[in-house]
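Run log, item B.
One chain of 76 residues. Sequence copied directly from the ordering sheet:
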Amino acid sequence: MIKKVATCFVAGSILPPVLTKLVLQPMYSPKPIFDEINALRTEMDQVGWIVRHEEESRGLSGDALYAPTSLYQGWH
């Protein structure tokens, strides 16, 4: 009886995380959404650097310049 209870307890504590990791997570993974967000973030950052270089070419400098987010947040 104790062996059966212990087996059920071990199976009940091991099977749910394994099923979640191997079955449910791949089925409902939002990875494509995060990839799209990362691509948009990269494109926005590139546009920000283009704007910054254009402002520098017009003679602006220092605090007057637009600063792309990656300059401060280190995404690259």
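Observations after the first pass:
- The mean pLDDT is 77.
- The radius of gyration is 25 Å.
Flagged for discussion on Thursday.
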